[in-house]
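Dear colleague,

Thank you for sharing your sequence with our group. We've completed the structure prediction you requested, and as agreed, I am returning the results in plain text so they can be pasted directly into your records. Please verify that the sequence below matches your submission; if there's any discrepancy, let me know and we will rerun it promptly.
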Amino acid sequence: MSKDLPRSAAAAQQVDPAAVLAFVDAVEADPAIELHSLMVVRHGHVIAEGWWAPHTPERTRLLYSLSKSFTSTALGLALEEGRVGLDDPVVSFFPEFDAEITDPRSRSVTLGHLASMASGHNRDMMQEALTGDPQEPVRGFLLVAPDEEPGTVFAYSQPCTYTLAAIIQRVTGMRLSEYLRPRLFDPLGIGEVGWLTWPPGREQGFSGLFARTEDVAKLGQLYLQGGRWGEDQLLPERYVEQATSRQIDTPNQDNVDWRQGYGFQFWMARHGYRGDGAFGQFCVVLPDHDTVVAITGGTEAMQGVLDNLWEHLLPGLGTSRPDDAQRDLDKRLDGLRLPACLARPRPPRWEEYDGSRLFKPAVTHWMSLPDHPAGGEAGTARSEGDLAGGYTSRWAALGRPPG
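Please find the predicted structure tokens below.
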């Protein structure tokens, strides 16, 4: 297949342009929702795409926990190559910790448990893992005994994915982005990406990937096609089925589309399944409609985004409208723009400002830039109060925000 997904008019792929327009109107009318990009793919063709200026198609952006679905893909590839097994005990990959990990439940956690967020802990373990061992969070995580038998309880826990990513990088001898480059990124035509690392040299896995909206759409399309891309079976079809099927129930989540179950780093939904990340990053796959929807944003109202998707866009899949509806949609998508922030030209009592009140460097993280001419890794600092995996500071090697 070509580097870019093919483009098509919506009606040519049996999509009502008015339905896409209704979705855009609905999210823009909701003051709690801020989207940055939208791409709708039907029958393998992009039928609608738009970026709210100043966001642009070519710039990478932080995908937050949508990074997990790329890590899941690395797991599927490592399974196919015989490097790991879903039933392998996690502790077997870290012999240096073996003598310390004595709890039977801790020793029985497997890669499959990590992939399905079913380590047996009943909470996110990130803070406890970092407290237990700030230099090696995997050790800190494994030292905390699970509350229940692994595989019996769901808890959305960042160290599950972090440990899974650490194992993949250990057995392959490569960073995730290096491992995925010839196996996923290059075949799909995904260009330069970056992935935050901590400690230096280990890409986070649970967050930290910087990529483009179309890269997200391509990942969704790969899964929609059962792991096949063009003439090549890149990812085993059996793994795609496992990753995108309910592996564990998620009854205690706050929102309805988060209570549909969890696969291997994919959420089940009322319609289809998805990868998602904080602040409105979505890769929604709708197998019944042969459709992928990629969204990036800056909103906490993520259930609201999905509600609008089901109410407005979903009914338009499988129908068509006259050409004037397509013209209206094209005009709307071409003119998307975020409103300017209302602010004073300078802060009050500017003469008292000394810089320390607005920014306090906290933990230093690292950005892996395997494809960048600068090479190596670039340090970034994040401000206190950021969500785990949410980093807003600049790429030092690039000297500008990544997206």
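Summary note from our side: The first helix runs from residue 17 to 29.

Kind regards,
the structure core
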